[in-house]
Amino acid sequence: MENFHNYINGMFVATSHQRTFENINPADRDDIIGTFPLSTSEDVNSAVKAAKDAFITWSKMPAPKRGDLLRKAGDIFTKRKEELARIMTREMGKPVFETLGDIQEAIDTAYYAATETRRLFGYTAPSEMENKMNLSFRTPIGVCGIITAWNFPIAVPSWKILPALACGNTIVFKPSDDSPHSAQIFAEILEEAGIPKGVFNVIHGDGLAGSALVEHPDVKLIGFTGSTGTGKIIAERCGALNKKCSLEMGGKNAQIVMPDANLDLALDGVLWGAFGTTGQRCTATSRLILHEDIYDSFINALITKATSIKLGNGLNESTQMGPVINSKQLEKIKGYVSIARNEGAICVLGGDEEIAGDCAKGNFYKPTIFIDVTEDMTIFKEEIFGPVLAISKAHSLDHAIQMANNCEYGLSSSIFTGNVDAAFRAIRDIEAGITYINAPTIGAEAHMPFGGIKGTGNGHREGGWTAFEIFTEWKTVYVDYSGSLQRAQIDNY
């Protein structure tokens, strides 16, 4: 078992105390990957100071030169893809074919961010006065605190970190304590790419380290991915401290299936959307809304296919679905299943079935399907973050859209239909930041905006060109070459 350290000012450094936490393989609780520091405010201070000092020179480096380093990082991510995928699978559970995709997101984002360093465009505009020019520029913000969840321990941090670096900011990254090893590799890769000391720093720990990062006066922006409850607390503190804040939080995403859809495609879509990553995605398909004409037949076909999903250690090539991240989350899922039963939903697959064999050593939970779920039930409304699918019946397209919108979240959505009119009505009327047509609710692409409305976020969009709006400030410049005092905001007419 290896002892890991924080990464501060270009070095892996031990803390001044002995408090640590264990990183445990969720597929095998006897497999302890290593120990990581429970960082204190003192550790956070050291990391922030390094980032603040580095900002002076990093922010002045020509943006395309920063892009060159990010491009190198993409090359190194590519070179270490297989190795990193297995490290990630061991610590957070999803199968290697999924973690390879996780890293590909970082590769795509690195190359995209590198090219965008030549496109950090400002605007020029005509002045209302003679012999005067109006300009505007994007400028970096400063030290950015990045706090992310465990389920995409490379992809999601890359969506924040790489655009932030491209814009000239410096970083203090607090990864989830359920996936800290991936963050170590992230640091190694950026160091090998030539990112200067202090520009990127990693502190490990629990919520206390995250809170210290949020509260630090020299941290100018917080980028957060995680639960809605925690995100709201962060937003409140950032508001009080007048810090910029970007939040990506929960989801309770619905897939609608109409009778005119390609039903085989819709079936494959919901299986992937609901049970890919063991349902542990903010974009997971946790609600399935079926038109009444296909309700019974579609459910029967779904049960047949879901029964064959192979659970196991994600390092095994035959595994289709890995474990739940930890025992606490496993108990939370069981609690929701119990509530669903008590409220009258009918469990037709899974539930608290006994897990045998090698899976008994890990945090495994079988694919679970509830039918006849009504809009007043807890399982219809609350995010579970596990392999539990709630199925409801709709009488029409309008009814299906109304059900999809009856939710405090608004991240992702999906409709399967062969009717172009129905597709465009869904695009217009579904309340979500993302809508898929004839595809499941998961599958974001790195060059497109990612985010949601309502309880899902606070209006920002990660991914694509919109990420650069988060990590820059605007500076407006007026150049007056008239040789005389010209007064704007005075009635010159």
Query: How many individual β-strands?
Result: 22
Second CATH tier, the architecture of the largest domain = 3-Layer(aba) Sandwich
Which geometry do the CA atoms define?
globular
Question: What is the number of domains?
Answer: 2
CATH topology of the largest domain, anyone? Answer: Aldehyde Dehydrogenase, Chain A, domain 1
Range of strand content: 15-25%
Average of per-residue pLDDT values: 96
CATH classification, class level of the largest domain? Alpha Beta
Secondary-structure-based class equals: alpha/beta
Continuous helix count: 15
End-to-end CA span: 76 Å
Which homologous superfamily in CATH is the superfamily of the largest domain? Aldehyde Dehydrogenase, Chain A, domain 1
As a percent range, the share of helical residues equals: 25-40%
Work out the radius of gyration: 24 Å
Question: Which residues sit in consecutive blocks of at least 5 with pLDDT less than 50?
Answer: none
State the major sheet. 7 strands, mixed
Strand order of the largest sheet: 15-16-17-14-13-19-20
Descriptive tags:
38% helix, Aldehyde Dehydrogenase, Chain A, domain 2, 493 residues, globular
